[in-house]
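During the reporting period the student researcher (J.K.) took over the structure-prediction task from the postdoctoral fellow and processed the backlog of single-chain submissions. One of the processed entries is reproduced below for the supervisory committee.
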Amino acid sequence: MSAPNSLNPSVSFREHPEKFILEHCENKQGDLEQNILEFLRRLTTVYKVKMPTLKLENFPVSLHTVQMKRAMEYFEKNKNKAA
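J.K. obtained the following structure tokens:
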């Protein structure tokens, strides 16, 4: 079995979306917060994914920023529809 990475996550997006997102974005170059926000944008606008409930508390404290809070609020408000 290969090690988990952005192409082979060790967790399910539907069961543990925050862990999946972190795993996917941690190995990319650049700022983790910006990588996460860009990944979330692509999921909803490009791939039209219906987002599961995301909780800011399930992300590391270093990611508890205004932008991340705003993104979580947006997904909570629009949880039953894709962008």
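The committee noted the following: The helical segments are 17-26, 32-45, 66-77.
J.K. will present the remaining backlog at the next meeting.
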